């Protein structure tokens, strides 16, 4: 159902608030692991300033290259706790979003934007503390000539995003948690972070991961050979 | 007249000081819009540290890959309020510019550098507060073997730059204002910023861009259809 | 001898401590120049936060795409003052390294990591002050399924690295100093920095590099022609 | 349901044969237009030799970087008329597919491969006439260490592909037609090609698209101004 | 005067026919050298099939991303012997041009297209023998919503192109010869090719470029040292 | 010993002729596997025309960006059966090599060139049948101003190349076989090709790789689960 332009859906089912609140406590890497190592956007999707962080429910936008019209349509659908997510019909890095739209989005309750295009006014956005993850930073202006869609499934940076899915974004990138899996993933992330706390202590005390995780046997089975020094390796390899 | 190497022009006509002073008050995005959405350098041209900002008149440099000789020739032509702009005869990311040249440029009155090549000593340049926009950051050293030109028209990151043009650069990128248009663009940028102040207030108060800009009719004419919820959209699409 | 997987060397000869201590006083650009303009990693190798700096002896790691198993093997070989350097058998940007491994590496005495793959948990690493230079930042998790090697020669971002070589890394990138050349390069870097101090003073006082470095004659021999202004250049070119 | 590894589905519903046969008569560009300008894989997905063409039903493969194990699992699921489509869990360009696997795939009835990774043995594949669309050509070998999935939904070059969808690929790239839309899109593509035949004749006879498509009024409304020559434009712009 | 959209110039001054005819006899590399090593488009501008070649006068087009409207406007301005050259207001790889437009362009007398965007229907274009140089090949369709300009100066792949300039394109890329320099460059290219014929014979006979071009002295002055074998080099370097 | 410029070594030890002759019978992929999956140049290194193939001993060249002087120095060192291999001191795509140099190289007995820079005159090189593998195709001319080295170890596209090593290149890319390993690798490649002939027959007859290679048990141990159809998978996953 990803698809043709021309549709704006006013009301969508969003992930439940409790799951979103729990997911907000964890990082993108942890949540991605807790989902089974899926759900990440591509590596080019980066925050416009260090320390940016957002966790909310997706309002999705399909836009066309060089055209930011649908961002204004989307503003009306934004509710408190949403994160806008914009996909494009073809590759584009124009500065579709800036400080005025951020002012509007914030007034509507939005927590941030993830955009598969460019962003501008980044100094002002940093001062406002309005986080954006984008493909590029560029001042290039856009037109309002071609309609797209709002709140239909979109592709964004290689991931499929449905309206209402949970969007978690930080310095490590962006992960999408499907709304139906939100509760399960939130619980798994919490469990994972709890477990890592114990591991961290052991590693900080100087224990090796080889022992903490019990890897020595499997490494040996996989064929890893240890040598005391470089001379020993050379002797082995010249046999 | 873009062209062969070997020419150094000592004195060039610069944009008038009043226009430069006015342009310095506005951001790259605003000025680019005020020019009619032209004049930007490519998106890969980025500041070496956040918050960098410069507005001045261009001293142009044509350099060859891996060779920074002409930067020393250009130092002599720099006057108070200039921004050096370097184009290359072919793609190159070597660190053609660093802290020593920045010391020299600053002593001559220059406000910054825009270079279609690499930059190095970025920690020192950040400490000095000498802003540079570059294609890359790399420690790679250069030779002084082949002559280019100074103060002839150059191509830099996809834009044509004449000596004396106004260079405005900030976190959003770099825009070139031709010297003959400087006064007109400065006035248009000021008008644009003034107008946006009013819009900002309305958006911050929760008004929608759809209403502030009066977009509802044109969206309807363009064929945008609204649906109350996802179920309504599915019913429509399965007809 | 770069090569097949399956070898872990426990003890390697490291560059002498005095040379490493001297190299730590100089920047990557200076050291690269002092070596004769060689030894740099490619321009895509960037610090995960501004101001990162490390100088230490290399423990080398050969890893496979999407697999961070060997980082745990390497932890056991790390000694105080080491910098881990990871090369991959093919291009990969997965987040092979994060806060838990950094905790372990630091406990073992390591000063940082240079990795030809991705890094994650960058907010936590910034807070810890554990510097990493990487090809990408991405939350993508990895498996532990295929063995590589530790402390054998590797390729990393276009450079050959032997275990025990000196790794110097800062905002300008990363340079590798072969262990046998460490003393000579350290001395040359010190000499170069001393000489630049004098040059810096003269340039700061407004002297031109043309005069400080005595370039005017060679520029003239190379054919550079000076013109008083643009009109003079036009007259010459229309002859 | 895109997702975790470890699942191999033996039998999937495929698009109906009549629709596939009709789609095979049309090019990727026509089909993409007939779908409403959606369904394309990213521009980096290119045929390994000019003139490659394939149209069939998708057997989908999720593989991990540097690991081609699941291609062997997929071979068993291939039926006459299938096109294998491989997505990866992270970016990778290793040569996961070559002449031996092509021999096996062809023996099973497959018509080609679309892979979001690398391909090798391209001279042999060209001689065999076995078409492959890939992200890269590289001889890099792979391991068989980590399991993925076969015949579950995958992401490939920015598109969502379900098993049984129609894959059409030619010199212009690759388009995915969801199996439920196959009949409708086939009819629309046929209609489009029929209509274009008439247009082609008129254009070949020297008629202008401006008149064939009736664009003159809308261009005027959009504000396009005509000038007799460059002097007229200059007069207008200097007013 | 590069600039805002909305202008279509019907009649432009073209380079003289004799110069164009002479330039058509020479390759892009030769002409680029004859101009003083300037005028080339960026390296990403590639022919859509091997052996493509075109030499003609430029009709320039400024288009917006994802919008091919102006190509239809340009068709009316094309005359026998023209090559259309398209620049975009921001980076875009959509398939703005295909077989129908090529049919129209050919009917108007055009010899080819150089486009800083995508091209599609490449199999058909290859069969027609209509050469195109493009940034990408992609089936992605475009809209007709925003006006640009025709026959005003444009930027294309990093070069400035004026209407009427000579466009020469072959397997090595694309070079733009300003119309006022066409005669001079044509003569220089002819002279260069004549001279190279003699050089080619000497090299084919086994003479070395070192002697044909007389480089031995300058190499020695530049400091090149010869060694009989690797052992001699090692002795020198270990001194 | 990779390093500073200024050295030209006249005579180097080359891999033995019998090994080179044997390696010439096998493809790059086979040889790379036979070496233990090492030795490949990066994926961007591509032949300038399809079907290019070369196998010979390396004469190595270190050149600087935009400068092809050392190619002339290297011509004198070329012997019958050599393949020239060029590395650069920093990234560059200029057309350092063309038809005149190819004429000279061929007259000296060289079989081809592998260059980590650009190539030009590709139509002429294709007609001559002189194969080149390069990073780019571009007409951009170069100067002869800065000396590099000939027949010293170089880095080329991420690989270390010593003079006299075997260079094997075809449509799949380029692999470097260290001269001391040439005999062993040649034998291993021959054995591998012989073994694959049997496998090919079985696969062509419709046998599955799963059975030919005996993978079913290891897949089961790794956790792969089979499902009869999509409904069965859905039942499992909704448990």
Keywords for this structure?
homohexamer, 239 residues, alpha/beta, nine-stranded mixed β-sheet, two-stranded antiparallel sheet
Write the layout of secondary structure elements.
The structure is a homohexamer of 239-residue chains.
Chain A: E1 7-11, H1 17-23, H2 28-34, E2 46-47, E3 54-63, H3 69-77, E4 82-88, E5 95-97, H4 99-108, E6 112-119, H5 122-128, E7 132-137, E8 149-150, E9 154-156, E10 159-161, E11 166-170, E12 173-177, H6 182-204, H7 209-212, H8 216-222, E13 225-229, H9 230-237
Parallel strand pairs in A: 3-4, 4-6, 5-6, 6-7
Antiparallel strand pairs in A: 2-7, 3-8, 3-11, 9-10, 11-12
Helix pairs in contact in A: 1-6, 2-6, 3-4
Structure description:
The structure is a homohexamer of 239-residue chains. Chain A is α/β, with parallel strands linked by helices. Chain A is built from 9 helices and 13 strands. Chain A has helices at 17-23, 28-34, 69-77, 99-108, 122-128, 182-204, 209-212, 216-222, 230-237, and strands spanning 7-11, 46-47, 54-63, 82-88, 95-97, 112-119, 132-137, 149-150, 154-156, 159-161, 166-170, 173-177, 225-229. In chain A, strands 2, 3, 4, 5, 6, 7, 8, 11 and 12 form a 9-stranded mixed beta sheet that branches. In chain A, strands 9-10 form a two-stranded antiparallel sheet. In chain A, helix 2 (28-34) crosses helix 6. The longest helix of chain A has 23 residues, at 182-204. Chains in contact: A-B, A-C, A-D, A-E, B-C, B-E, B-F, C-D, C-F, D-E, D-F, E-F. Chain A binds chain B through residues 1, 6-13, 49, 69, 72-73, 75-76, 93, 95, 98-101, 103-104, 106-108, 118, 120-124, 126, 136-141, 144, 146-147, 151-152, 163, and chain B through 27-29, 32-33, 37, 40, 43, 46, 50-51, 170-173, 175, 196, 199-200, 203-206, 208-210, 213, 215, 218-219, 222-230, 232-234, 237. Strand 13 (225-229) of chain E pairs parallel with strand 1 (7-11) of chain F.
């Amino acid at each position: 159902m990803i698809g043709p332009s021309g549709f704006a859906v006013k009301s969508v089912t969003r992930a439940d608030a409790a799951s979103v609140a729990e997911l907000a406590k964890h990082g993108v890497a942890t949540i991605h692991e807790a989902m089974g190592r899926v759900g990440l956007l591509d590596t080019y999707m980066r925050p416009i300033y260090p320390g940016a962080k957002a966790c909310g429910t997706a309002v999705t936008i399909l836009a066309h290259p060089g055209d930011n019209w649908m961002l204004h349509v989307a503003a009306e659908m934004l509710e408190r706790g949403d994160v806008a997510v914009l996909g494009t019909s073809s590759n584009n890095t124009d500065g579709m979003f800036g400080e005025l739209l951020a002012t509007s989005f914030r007034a509507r309750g939005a927590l941030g934007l993830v955009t598969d295009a460019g962003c501008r006014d980044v100094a002002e956005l940093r001062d406002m503390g309005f986080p954006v993850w984008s493909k590029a930073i560029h001042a290039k202006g856009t037109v309002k000539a071609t309609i797209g869609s709002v709140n239909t499934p979109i592709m964004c940076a290689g991931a499929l995003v449905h309206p209402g899915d949970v969007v978690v974004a930080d310095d490590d990138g962006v992960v999408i948690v499907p709304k139906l899996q939100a509760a399960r993933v939130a619980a798994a992330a919490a469990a994972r972070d709890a477990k890592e706390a114990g591991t961290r202590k052991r590693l900080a005390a100087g224990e090796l991961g080889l022992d903490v995780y019990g890897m020595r046997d499997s490494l040996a089975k996989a064929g890893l050979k240890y040598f005391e020094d470089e001379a020993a390796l050379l002797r082995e390899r010249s046999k």
